[in-house]
Amino acid sequence: MSEHMKPKIHYAWIVLLLVFIALLSSQGVRLSFGAFITPWEEDFDTSRSVISLVAFISYIVFAISQPFVGKLVDTYGIRAIFTVSSLIIGISMILTFFVTAPWQLMILYGIIASIGFGGSSNVVGSIAIANWFTKKKGFALGLMSAGTAAGQLLLVPLALLLNDQFGWKTTVLILGAFLTFIISPLVYFFIRTYPSQKGIGAYGDAEAVVTDPSSQPKSSQILSIFQLLKKKEFLFLMFPFFVCGITTTGLMDTHLIPFAQYCGFSPTVTGTAVSLLAGFNILGTVLSGYLADRWNSKHILTFLYGFRALTIILLLVIVNNVSLFGFVISQSHLLILFAISFGVVNFATVAPTIKLATDYFKELSAGAVIGWLFLSHQVGSALGSLIPGVLFEVTGGYGISFIASILLLIISSGMCMLLPSSKPTVTS
């Protein structure tokens, strides 16, 4: 092929699409956990706090894996990590069919499947974007994060539907087979770790093609978590991202469905709310990534955390059955309004957070820094899934959990406001 005959679509976009699909599948399965809470409670004759403990273990395993995932990618490559992780999740879901007690769920889903969730995660996706994009990186990160949101949009309602029609056992078989026999082969055959493995440069590179993968630039310095915590930039990114985990994948993605069921909403209203939340989540993550290339990301994060606090107030209105600004609005409409508004800011924090981290710590290992950030996020997710379940058992409701989340989000918004400024990469 002539030097002047270049492909119309840069392979970086193909890699982005594959990462999107991998995250859609694996994280979509993870986020469908809330759809199984009530069926597992009934089938295993157990309490919500016990099932919430499964989610807690899952998030802790996920969290612990994150700082090591970057090192595994450096050793084995993005393709191997995504492929093996998808297989682990798929086979674990298939084996869940045979579970007869909660303790078995804690081992199979809480530990084994969650190792796969940790590998097929935004950490690996972020490294892929860093390798393949030098321009439009924020936009690409937003699209990558939208993969998880798309999984929430497609697989969570699908899990609810399949549970209702065929039962949870058939549902886990279908989800497991999808990951094992479709997603794993797809990422194995088509994804690549470096542009050089396709004989091209990264998207936006003006330099000639690099042909030796070993010549890819390596980060010169890796700091321990204790060293990173001494840096204001890291601490003021990590704590809000920790709170992000509490309030999104922890509280809402685990407990929104059982909360809606507790309030007496019909399956149709609940499914509509979940679908709208996920749909607007995609819009929010893509828009956030687009703006991260053009606006100061610290201001974006300040707004996102502050607005998320306002959205949770809607749930308190539903819980307390009070009027909103003097108007009586039906609770189902309030749930839909919450789903739309929360969805816009749900995963939208990922792109500006990662963008700031790569700007602040250019001299450090991107995989290590991103890994620690996502560890904090998943620890927050673990606490956000467990504690509301325990409080529900103690108090009979979610009110205290919602109030605590609002306070934490206000603190996080203030911390983001105090972050150092970082110049946008696109000024036009």
CATH classification class: Mainly Alpha
| CATH structural architecture | Up-down Bundle
H-E string: HHHHHHHHHHHHHHHH
Low-confidence stretches: 210-215
Helix/strand layout:
Blueprint: H1 11-31, H2 34-44, H3 48-76, H4 78-96, H5 102-119, H6 122-132, H7 137-166, H8 168-190, H9 225-229, H10 232-262, H11 267-292, H12 297-320, H13 331-345, H14 350-360, H15 366-395, H16 399-417
Helix pairs in contact: 1-4, 1-6, 1-7, 1-8, 2-7, 2-10, 3-4, 3-5, 3-15, 4-5, 4-8, 6-7, 6-15, 7-8, 7-11, 7-14, 10-11, 10-14, 10-15, 10-16, 11-13, 11-14, 12-13, 12-14, 12-16
Task: Report what the structure shows.
- This protein has 428 residues and is mostly helical.
- It is 75% helix and 0% strand.
- 55% of the residues are buried.
Summarize, please.
With 428 residues, the protein is mainly α. It is 75% helix and 0% strand. The model is unreliable at 210-215 (pLDDT under 50).
Give the key terms.
428 residues, mainly alpha, Growth Hormone, Chain: A, 75% helix
